[in-house]
Amino acid sequence: GSVVASYPYDDSPTHRPRGVYSKSADDEVFKYLAKAYASHHPIMRTGKPNCPGEEGETFQDGITNGAQWYDVEGGMQDYNYVWANCFEITLELSCCKYPPASELQKEWENNRESLLAFIEKV
Q1: I need a surface site. Which of 11, 12, 15, 64 has the fewest CB within 10 A?
Q2: Which residue ranges are recorded for the region named Disordered (predicted)?
Q3: Which domain range does residue 21 map to?
Q4: Based on the structure, what is the number of domains in the chain?
């Protein structure tokens, strides 16, 4: 896991493991939506999730193009965009995939304003 808002495309024509910006036709809209979420999250907006084992990983403005971060062929985010015209972003909300129950209140507090800001964009 990480703490970042990722947007299409997750797949790239070259399928290089990482570092290829795979721009969609709606790239600016996706960046706008991702920033709307990330800018209200106290950790995400720093662009420095500081996850164990990935302490040096950074994301400008707390967002990333999926394929630039790492290439995923056949991902749901891209599939829904291409075949259903569904504008999805992927939210990585924690370094830990399964945070303990004792941390859920903190996670809610970290994400509440981001969720509201994101919903307001509808």
Answers
A1: 15
A2: 1-20
A3: 4-120
A4: 1
Q: What is the CATH number of the domain that holds 82?
A: 3.40.630.10
pTM higher than 0.85 for the full model? yes
The question of whether 73 is a catalytic residue gets the answer no
DSSP string, 74-107: T-HHHHHHHHH-----EEEEESSSS--GGGHHHH
Which tokens sit at 98? Answer: 């399964």
Q: Which of 92, 103, 107, 113 is flagged as catalytic?
A: 92
Query: Which two tokens mark 42?
Result: 């106290």
Of 11, 57, 58, 63, nearest to 34 (Cα)? 63
16-28, pLDDT tens digit by residue?
898 999 999 999 9
